Amino acid sequence: MSSAPFIVGLTGGIGSGKTTVANLFAGKGIELVDADVVARDVVKPNTEGLNAIAAHFGNAVLNADGSLNRQALRGRVFSHENERLWLNNLLHPLIRKTMLEHVHNAKSDYVILVVPLLFENGLDSLVNTTLVVDISADLQKQRSAARDSTSQAEIQKIIDSQMSREQRLSKADHIIDNQGDVSSLSKQVNELHQHFLSLVQQR
Ligand code: ADP
User: Fold this and answer.
1) Cα of 102 to ligand 1 centre, how many Å?
2) Cα separation of 56 and 41, whole Å?
3) Which of 47, 135, 161, 190 is deepest in the core (most CB within 10 A)?
4) Do the bridges between strand 111-114 and strand 7-11 make them parallel or antiparallel, or are there none, so unpaired?
């Protein structure tokens, strides 16, 4: 067996059920690394990330307590393509490096990397296999609106900014259909868990 961790890249559009699915795997003892959590961690006070941002944009992008003022930062990169690129060139490698550190520290049989924009940001190159949670755009809107009190129009904008359902499915190694109830989800997770364990054994 290889000593490198076996990594499953979990993705899906907004409200598709990534978090719900990830938690079902976590219930089986599988460790999760969440790209959104890492993206927040790398700009916490006293990190290399936040120090570089403050040195570049000035203290106006910091709150009084030294934390990142996201609104101010958005203002500095909004419609300033060079600044947006500078920020992405800083953050993307940092996020990638930190996610891999977490993955390598994991002790479970395999690790799930939860990344909303797995394919869009090319992070599928880091994983051994990909798993897409799939639902229709109508259900995405219904479930996201019920969860976040966000308007359907706002959710539609986010859906439009993400990869299309067809493109995402065409890139998936494995697909979970989350249009049914949570017990159907749980059954699919059980089967995939066994499958991933067998893939790990075969290495
Ligand atoms: P994501 O992390 O992809 O944005 P979530 O896992 O947060 O999606 O799911 C979006 C919302 O839909 C949550 O409120 C979740 O509880 C709910 N949900 C997820 N799967 C189902 C399901 N099969 N049936 C009903 N509600 C679901």
Assistant:
1) 25
2) 19
3) 135
4) parallel
Distance 64 CA to ligand 1 centre (A): 36
Q: Can you read off the two tokens belonging to residue 50? A: 């936040």
Which residues are bridge partners to 112 per DSSP? 8, 32
Count the alpha carbons within 13 Å of 146 in the hemisphere toward its beta carbon. Answer: 9
Digit-coded pLDDT (tens) for 34-65: 999 999 999 999 999 999 999 999 999 999 99
CA distance 111 to 196: 10
| Pocket (CB within 6 angstroms of ligand 1) | 12, 14-20, 143, 147, 178, 181-182, 185
Q: Which two tokens stand for residue 8?
A: 């499953």
What is the C-alpha R_g of the chain? 18
**With pLDDT > 70 as the criterion, what percentage of the chain qualifies?**
99
Instruction: Output the pTM of the full model.
Output: 0.94
Domains of the chain plus CATH, in order, are 1-30+110-203 (3.40.50.300), 40-107 (3.40.50.300)
Q: What angle do CA 88, 90, 94 make, to 5 degrees?
A: 105
Report H helices in the chain: 18-26, 35-41, 48-57, 70-77, 81-105, 137-148, 152-161, 165-171, 182-202
Q: How far is the CA of 183 from the centre of ligand 1 (A)?
A: 13
Hey, what are 145's tokens? 């609106």
